[in-house]
């Protein structure tokens, strides 16, 4: 047709060919559509915490109208209606599926059967059949042929409408004429069919980075400052929905109820979004005024916020904590709102965060105590047979908490009625699940709550074992298994009535049902083996169960495999019980579980396989099982090799004595297999090193024939290009160096060669590898004889130490720690050959290490100070440390004080104490406090025999500190006295008692301090002094304060007396005040003549 607008041809743009693929473009746009401002902790919470099952709490329709109170009958009618709706929907769905299948089968029947060409079919008949088939195929594929025709003719398609001639005649007004193409026109095959949608807007073929198309938040609508609410850290968009009244309301036009609601709203907002100090104050205010606000006002504010899906973990924690405090304050006033509270907080019982689960459990426990069992039962009874499994699961968990809180005695009658329910299998299932959840909540081996009622519970669970519903039978078996685990190793007498039904259930079930029944009987066998009266039962059930387990070894079901492995670990197997164990158990087990499929399975399965292998090895033939496993250390599959290494490590570490009977051939196989697995690893993991270390320690001298092959492997890997391989080789040297010393006896030549190689490797650029090399060097030098260290020349200690000095300045934590430990080792073993000036230079470098963030580095530095001080004398080191007390940084001062304490311990106090006490004369708080801390650490490290010699010398200093106005001085001085008194218990005679009484006189006035840190140290020192001077003298200081008219005076004295009563109640009896007669009753005598006896 002749058209007014010529067809627009798309330009051939080569740049488009270099763009990213369209699929990747879509993925990028979809990914970038997420809000880039979303913090990582929220994304992590969304990924981890919001699994599909947990998300169901946002899909429930919850009505939080606290004014609407439905009766029990109304709720039950609603549940029946929901159940009926589900049944009808299921029937309609089944009917629809059945009708579809019927139509399809009818069509298949109506279509004529395609006949094959046989010898008796004439050519004419065959031709007719073929034409008929072709016409059917044409009708069938008319749509696809039309599409092919459009593509072939390059007909443009706009919004799914092909612009053919017939369609254009209908669209365009009359008057258009079809024009033939020019004579010399040639269609370009590469030209794309014109797309009229591109005629309006031209697009570039270049790839444009996507922009964030998330809904922009209008900053003008979200207030930054809420009227009347101060101390907020943030105010989110979602908060406007719940706290919008605070922004838009006018306080003057509100009545009393609305003002109360507004005040509660302000406090909730402060707790949710406020700074720590604001939250603390608001929480206290809300708790104190909970009764004034009432449950309705408070719950109206809190419960809707908890239903928000965008809550951060911190906000959720604060809101849950708030509900717990409110319930405690309101007590029985919360009763009408029990249903709403449980509906909102119960989903947190299955939260991924264990802290949230624990908090929710405590809230439900508190709610149960407040409202009572009857109210909880009437609230949750309609949900016992709810159509949704999610609701039933939560109901079972709530009832388990209720049973644990109020005790099983009052709860069992209700539970018995639920499990006997004939109305619906779901109610029975939920009732049994309550017992299961109670057992899980108590934990394995904590069955003291259940044990008195075990017979009643087992009697309740006996009928459901043969229930008509498979789900009920399965949950019953699992619950019985959980019960047996809880009360283990007791209670087999109570389980005896259900042994026979469970055993028959094993014969009747397959699949998951069989797994649950196997788990049940497997949990009871350990209880039988504990009771000698059930020895025959144990032997019979163990033998029969092993036949069934061996049959199920090849089961593809993962649950069955896990169950089997767990059962094996609990069975009392023995060679006598199963004589043909090698053929009937060990070989089938190895064939079924020691394969590549298991090795690539989940971590849980592999861990269970290793544990089960270890159990079978202990119970049967250890060396035979070890030989089976060693074979897999040379497998081509790395995961299977790793599994074998884990098993070898487990077997050897737990049963080293079993290797005594190992022959040289298995010895060689074992070392060769572990070394092969170590060499072939592509993913470097710690288990290989751990296994090598375990094997080397177990074999000890027997490793000598294999040392050459091991060391050649290590040295070859030390020169590898990859840093990880060099690091692992260095770590292996550190592990086997002590064993090399054991194998070489008095010849240290091999270790000296290793030291030379490691010394030459100290120029390593990768800090992780350098740290491992230093650790290996430490291990080699520690293993070598002290005499050899003096004579060692290549390299000598004089060469090694200056090389380590610049490495001390390395900022990497692993390098710092390893280097400091190595310097400390040299100072301990071979310090005489080093110049004192070199040690002083190292001391100055070590001072910097006291600022390290990692505690282990500071500990290593302090220990090294002690070794160096012992070498060159404490005078120079102490001067340097005392100068360090003047710095402002507290951590550095504390570490310096610790170092001074270690130096005093190493070189004895008389070398250090004069300098320290002289430094105390400087009128600077930091220095004086540092000296007191140094004395505290010093007397903490010393014993009583040394401590008592310095009592009189340090008393004036401590007297000054205890009478100082500075709280920290008194606190630290009290700590010093605490350590001195603890050291001198039983060693201080009458000559020293006056000193301790003097200390007590100085400390007692400080009992009225309010600072928690100070008062705890004061009370500690008073307790220690009581133990030194005796209860008789000590109680004279206490009696007057116990009955003082002022409460603030009585309180600290009663704390002191309570500590004394707890620790020395028997020793206090002779020291009580002597009261022979009461003033009002002079005839009755209270005199105890026995207490007048003195030995």
UniProtKB/TrEMBL annotation:
Keywords: mRNA processing, mRNA splicing, Nucleus, Repeat, Spliceosome. The keyword Nucleus applies. It is found in: Nucleus. Residues 98-137 are annotated as: Disordered. Its main location: nucleus. GO terms for cellular component: spliceosomal complex. Residues 871-942 form the Phosphatase PP2A regulatory subunit A/Splicing factor 3B subunit 1-like HEAT repeat domain. The keyword Nucleus applies. GO terms for biological process: spliceosomal complex assembly. Residues 118-137 have a biased composition (Basic and acidic residues). GO terms for molecular function: mRNA binding. Belongs to the SF3B1 family. This is U2 snRNP-associated splicing factor, putative. It comes from Candida dubliniensis (strain CD36 / ATCC MYA-646 / CBS 7987 / NCPF 3949 / NRRL Y-17841) (Yeast).
């Amino acid at each position: 047709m002749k058209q007014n607008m010529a067809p627009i041809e798309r330009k051939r743009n080569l740049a488009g060919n270099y763009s990213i693929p369209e699929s990747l473009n879509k993925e990028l746009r979809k990914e970038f559509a997420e809000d880039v401002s979303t913090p990582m902790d929220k994304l992590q919470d969304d990924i981890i915490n919001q699994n599909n099952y947990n998300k169901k709490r946002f899909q429930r329709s919850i009505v939080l109208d606290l004014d609407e109170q439905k009766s029990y009958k109304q709720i039950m009618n609603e549940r029946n209606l929901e159940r009926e709706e589900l049944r009808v929907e299921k029937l309609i769905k089944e009917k629809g599926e059945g009708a579809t299948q019927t139509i399809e089968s009818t069509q298949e029947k109506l279509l004529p059967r395609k006949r094959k060409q046989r010898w008796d079919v004439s050519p004419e008949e065959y031709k007719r059949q073929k034409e008929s088939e072709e016409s059917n195929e044409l009708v069938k594929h008319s749509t696809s042929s039309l599409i092919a025709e459009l593509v072939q003719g390059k007909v443009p398609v706009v919004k799914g409408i092909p612009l053919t001639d017939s369609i254009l005649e209908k669209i365009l007004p009359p008057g258009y004429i079809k024009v033939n193409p020019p004579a010399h026109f040639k269609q370009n095959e590469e030209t794309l069919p014109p797309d009229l949608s591109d005629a309006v807007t031209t697009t570039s073929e270049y790839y444009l980075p996507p922009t964030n198309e998330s809904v922009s938040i209008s900053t003008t609508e979200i207030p930054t400052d809420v009227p009347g609410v101060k101390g907020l850290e943030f105010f989110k968009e979602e908060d406007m929905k719940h706290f919008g009244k605070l922004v838009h309301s006018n306080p003057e036009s509100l009545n009393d109820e609305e003002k109360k609601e507004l005040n509660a709203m302000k406090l909730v907002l402060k707790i949710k979004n406020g700074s720590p100090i604001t939250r603390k104050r608001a929480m206290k205010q809300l708790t104190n005024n909970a009764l004034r606000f009432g449950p309705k006002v408070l719950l109206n504010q809190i419960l809707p916020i908890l239903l928000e899906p965008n809550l951060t973990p911190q906000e959720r924690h604060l809101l849950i904590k708030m509900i717990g405090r409110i319930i405690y304050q309101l007590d029985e006033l919360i009763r009408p709102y029990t249903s709403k509270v449980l509906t909102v907080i119960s989903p947190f019982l299955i939260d991924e965060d264990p802290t949230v689960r624990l908090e929710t459990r405590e809230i439900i426990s508190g709610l149960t105590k407040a409202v009572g069992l009857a109210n909880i039962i009437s609230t949750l009874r309609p949900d016992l047979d709810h159509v949704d499994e999610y609701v039933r699961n939560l109901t079972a968990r709530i009832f388990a908490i209720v049973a644990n809180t109020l005790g099983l005695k009052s709860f069992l009658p209700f539970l018995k009625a639920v499990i006997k329910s004939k109305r619906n299998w779901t109610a029975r299932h939920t009732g049994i699940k309550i017992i299961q959840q109670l057992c899980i909540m108590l934990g394995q081996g904590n069955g003291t709550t259940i044990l008195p009622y075990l017979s009643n519970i087992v009697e309740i669970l006996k009928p459901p074992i043969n229930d008509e519903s498979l789900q009920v039978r399965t949950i019953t078996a699992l619950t019985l298994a959980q019960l047996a685990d809880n009360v283990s190793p007791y209670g087999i007498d109570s389980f005896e009535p259900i042994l026979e039904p469970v055993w028959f259930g094993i014969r009747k079930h397959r699949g998951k049902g069989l797994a649950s029944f196997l788990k049940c009987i497997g949990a009871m066998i350990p209880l039988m083996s504990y009771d000698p009266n059930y020895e025959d039962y144990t032997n019979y059930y163990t033998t029969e169960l092993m036949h069934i387990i061996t049959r199920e070894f090849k089961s593809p079901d993962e649950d069955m495999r896990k169950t089997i492995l767990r059962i094996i670990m609990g069975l009392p197997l023995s060679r006598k019980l199963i004589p043909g164990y090698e053929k009937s158990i060990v070989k089938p087990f190895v064939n079924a579980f020691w394969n590549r499929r298991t090795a690539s399975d989940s971590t849980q399965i592999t861990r269970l396989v290793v544990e089960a292998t270890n159990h079978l090895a202990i119970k049967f033939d250890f060396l035979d099982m070890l030989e089976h496993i060693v074979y897999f250390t040379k497998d081509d599959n790395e995961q299977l090799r790793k599994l074998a290494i884990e098993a070898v490590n487990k077997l050897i570490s737990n049963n080293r004595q079993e290797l005594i009977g190992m022959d040289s051939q298995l010895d060689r196989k074992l070392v060769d297999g572990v070394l092969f697995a170590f060499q072939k690893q592509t993913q470097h993991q710690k288990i290989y090193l751990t296994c090598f270390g375990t094997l080397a320690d177990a074999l000890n001298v027997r490793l000598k024939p294999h040392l050459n092959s091991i060391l050649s492997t290590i040295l070859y890997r030390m020169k590898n290009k990859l840093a990880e391989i060099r690091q692992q080789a260095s770590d292996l040297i550190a592990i086997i160096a002590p064993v090399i010393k054991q194998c070489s006896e008095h010849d240290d030549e091999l270790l000296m060669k290793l030291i030379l190689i490691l010394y030459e490797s100290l120029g390593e650029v990768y800090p992780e590898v350098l740290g491992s090399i230093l650790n290996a060097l430490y291990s080699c030098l520690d293993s070598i004889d002290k005499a050899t260290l003096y004579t060692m020349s290549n390299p000598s200690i004089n060469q090694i130490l200056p090389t380590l000095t610049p490495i001390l300045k390395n900022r990497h934590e692993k390098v710092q720690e390893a280097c400091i430990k190595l310097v400390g080792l040299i100072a301990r073993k071979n310090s005489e050959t080093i110049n004192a000036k070199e040690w002083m230079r190292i001391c100055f470098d070590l001072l910097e290490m006291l600022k390290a963030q990692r505690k282990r580095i500071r500990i290593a530095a302090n220990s090294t100070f002690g070794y160096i001080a012992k070498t060159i004398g404490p005078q120079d080191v102490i001067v340097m440390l005392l100068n360090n007390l003047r710095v402002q940084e507290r951590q550095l001062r504390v570490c310096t004080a610790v170092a001074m304490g270690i130096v005093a311990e190493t070189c004895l106090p008389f070398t250090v104490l004069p300098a320290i006490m002289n430094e105390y004369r400087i009128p600077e708080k930091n220095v004086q406090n540092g000296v007191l801390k140094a004395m505290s650490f010093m007397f903490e490290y010393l014993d009583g025999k040394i401590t008592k010699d310095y009592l009189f010398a340090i008393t004036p200093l401590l007297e000054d500190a205890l009478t100082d106005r500075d709280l920290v001085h008194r606190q630290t001085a009290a700590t010093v006295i605490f350590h001195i008194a603890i050291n001198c218990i039983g060693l201080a005679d009458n000559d020293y008692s006056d000193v301790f009484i003097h200390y007590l006189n100085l400390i007692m006035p400080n009992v009225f301090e309010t600072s928690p840190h100070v008062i705890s140290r004061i009370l500690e020192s008073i307790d220690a002094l009581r133990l030194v001077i005796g209860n008789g003298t000590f109680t004279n200081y206490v009696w007057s304060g116990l009955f003082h008219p002022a409460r603030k005076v009585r309180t600290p004295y009663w704390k002191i007396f309570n500590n004394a009563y707890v620790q020395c109640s028997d020793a206090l009896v002779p020291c009580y005040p002597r009261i022979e007669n009461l003033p009002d009753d002079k005839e009755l005598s209270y005199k105890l003549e026995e207490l007048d006896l003195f030995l």
